[in-house]
Design brief:
Number of helices: 20
Shape: extended
Oligomer: single chain
Helix content: 25-40%
Pfam families: C1_2
Largest sheet: 4 strands, antiparallel
Protein name: DC1 domain-containing protein
Organism: Cannabis sativa
Radius of gyration: 35 Å
Keywords: Repeat
Distance between the termini: 81 Å
Length: 661
């Protein structure tokens, strides 16, 4: 009988010597076996063909299992949870989509000498494995052993383990419930513990891969790992997003730089590969509803942090400059600090620290009680109460999201033609990294730019020439409306529709300079678009340090200011005056660099570049000469050239369709 054969095989494997293995059951292959399997598997296959009898097993007591030998299958065993590819012999329950490999089916129950020594005699019979597992003390297993639920190392933590099957679970992972309600990343529906037996899964939150055990929603396409599913802290409010955001650590290298923050640190070419970004980019605030992501450094940070090795609390500053000499450091790591980034400061002691040097303290705060915690939107002006109240009312009334793209669709055809004469949509690149520039490229371009300043003596002469150049290019260059701008949420404020992230800029603009668009004859929608561009430039000016200004910045700002003045009819003379002051400062900074330049080294560097270009040109012309010499003696090429000369005064139609007549 088939069941009796399985029982005898279990008993026979207790003291088995390890030799050549059967690919089906992992048993020793004797001389009576074959290349396709051991003697037992071959006999089992033959018996199954003679009589198809269901098999009972305590591990799957709800239905008997069927031995399949007639088709190949790729599956993950429900007992050992190992992947088997293209196996043609296995046990299955078609009603439950349950699989069990032959090795697990015939494996005997572990004996006392076959198990790990348990801690306090504690054992568990877990639903994911057929054998009971002892609680193992730390240090009893190898360092490379991983938990089958979370896929993280077991070393250093208490876990349950089956030595015979090499199956391990962290004690905390073994205690995960069959259902979870109110998960941070999916609180609309309950999540159910799921065992994958056909393919590995990936977490939709942290992108952790090769998962067998996940939590899944039966009403929508949501798959979460145990860590993300069991995370139930309070979400944090981000001024520029309508849903709460939840902090988690991403392990997916491909998505670490994905950030939906507007004008955030990671979007600036001079900063995107810095130590500060690389040290914190794995910590992300995430909205599970719409996949909105923002780096912790680019988004929200605690206003106050306590550091165990400093007596006073540290306060977050967007800009921390301890001196005027351009030398800035961190008092924790004692390394250099880029002043463009925010930092934690003790003003009393002049103690300043990198954000990434306080990551563990920040994470401790953010994972705690956030109810009364003050969080700071890094690099952003606080959203004004007036603008915020408008947004709150819209949300309470359930109004649909109105974006900049919707605003563009409201302008007339004449206005659209006017706008498109000066702008184009960046819909091809869709916010990609096409505009990112490396530090090396920036330095190379900067050196060339600085050398040009030796042609000028006074700043007014430089400004006049530069603005004439800009104005000439303005007539020929189309400005860019970025793909990311089109999806910005727009709210009504003081007669304009403005993206939420620019609401505070518009409020300050109106309070200081009045309604700059009052005399414009365009429609409210078109004027709102013009106000958007103007506020965007103002915000960029507020965020850009004088040390980072280059000619591209000045050209970009000049274009938008001239568009606002000459095309929209806005009263922006104050912006023109500001731009001239900024350009004057830029001129003298470049002159200062010119005076400090190591001319000898720079000259040698330029000469080396030219010599390299010269060598490349020589190689190209040598190849051209070789081609000419070889072609002049090639009779086939001569023949084709002569044919080409004869056909030169024929029409293309005569030549192309001649063979089809």
């Amino acid at each position: 009988m088939l069941e009796e054969e399985l029982k005898l095989e279990r008993e026979g494997r207790l003291n088995q010597q390890q030799k050549k293995k059967c690919h089906i059951c992992d048993n020793e292959i004797s001389d009576e076996g074959s290349s396709s399997g051991c003697k037992f598997c071959n006999d089992l296959r033959r018996r199954n063909q003679e009589q198809h009898r269901p098999i009972q097993t305590p591990f799957h007591s709800s239905h008997p299992l069927k031995l399949c030998t007639d088709k190949f299958q790729t599956f993950i065993c429900n007992s050992c949870h190992k992947l088997h590819e293209n196996i043609d012999m296995y046990f299955t329950c078609e009603q439950c989509d349950f699989f069990m490999d032959v090795k697990c089916m015939v494996m005997p129950q572990p004996t006392w000498y076959d198990e790990f020594e348990s801690v306090g005699g504690k054992f568990i019979q877990h639903s994911t494995h057929q054998h009971r597992m002892p609680l193992i003390k730390d240090g009893a297993i190898n360092d490379d052993v991983s938990c089958f639920v979370c896929r993280l190392k077991c070393s250093g933590e208490v876990c349950y383990g089956c030595k015979r099957c090499e199956y391990f679970l962290h004690e905390s992972c073994a205690q995960l419930p069959p259902q979870i309600y109110g998960s941070s990343f999916h609180n609309e529906h309950p999540l159910f513990f799921h065992t994958s037996n056909r393919a590995f899964r990936s977490c939709k939150s942290c992108n952790k891969e090769n998962l067998i055990f996940t939590y899944e929603c039966r009403q929508c396409d949501c798959i979460l790992c145990g860590d993300c599913a069991s995370t139930i802290p309070h979400g944090v409010k981000f001024d520029y997003h309508e849903h709460p955001l939840y902090l988690h650590q991403s392990t997916d290298d491909d998505n670490l730089m994905k950030c939906d923050g507007y004008d955030s640190y990671c979007k600036r070419p001079t900063l995107n590969n810095s130590e500060e970004i690389n040290g914190t980019k794995s910590y992300i605030f995430w909205c599970a509803k719409c996949d909105f992501k923002v780096h912790m450094l680019c988004g929200l940070l605690p206003k106050i942090i306590n550091y165990e090795y400093h007596v006073h609390s540290l306060v977050l500053f967007d800009l921390a400059l301890e001196n005027e000499f351009g030398e800035y450091g961190c008092d924790i790591c004692e390394g250099k600090r880029d002043p463009r980034f925010c930092a934690y400061v003790c003003e009393e002691c002049k103690f300043i620290a990198h954000v990434h040097c306080l990551t563990s303290q920040i994470m401790k705060v953010l994972k705690g009680d956030l109810k009364n915690l003050e969080l700071h939107n890094v690099g952003e002006m606080k959203l004004s109460n007036e603008v915020n109240n408008v947004w709150v009312v819209e949300k309470e009334q359930g109004r649909s999201v109105f974006t900049l793209m919707d605003l563009l669709n409201q302008i007339s055809e004449v206005e659209s033609e006017k706008l498109m004469a000066y702008f184009h949509f960046d819909v091809v690149n869709k916010g990609s990294d096409h505009d990112k520039t490396t530090q090396h490229q920036l330095q190379h371009n900067n050196n060339d730019e600085v050398l040009q300043f030796s042609n000028f003596i006074e700043s007014h002469q430089f400004i006049s020439v530069l603005f004439d150049e800009f104005h000439f290019n303005f007539q020929k260059t189309k400005l860019e409306i970025k793909y990311t701008d089109l999806s910005l949420r727009v709210v009504p404020f003081k007669g304009y529709s403005i993206p939420l992230n620019l609401g505070s800029v518009l409020k300050n603009l109106l309070e200081k300079y009045g309604d700059i668009g009052e005399s414009s004859t365009f429609s409210p929608a078109m004027k709102s678009i013009g106000i958007f561009f103007t506020c965007k430039v103002l915000k960029q000016m507020q965020l850009t340090l004088v040390a980072d200004i280059n000619k591209d910045h000045l050209r970009h700002w000049y274009f938008y200011i001239i568009f606002a003045k000459e095309i929209m009819g806005f009263e922006v003379e104050f912006l023109e005056v500001s731009l001239k002051k900024i350009t004057q400062v830029f001129f003298y900074r470049q002159v200062s660099k010119l005076l400090d330049m190591d001319i000898k080294s720079l000259r040698q560097s330029k000469m080396d570049e030219l010599e390299n270009e010269k060598d490349k040109c020589k190689v190209k012309f040598d190849k051209l000469r070789e081609f000419q010499e070889s072609s002049s003696s090639n009779q086939f090429i001569k023949k084709r050239l002569n044919e080409g000369l004869k056909l030169m005064w024929k029409t293309v139609g005569e030549v192309g369709f001649k063979s089809h007549n």
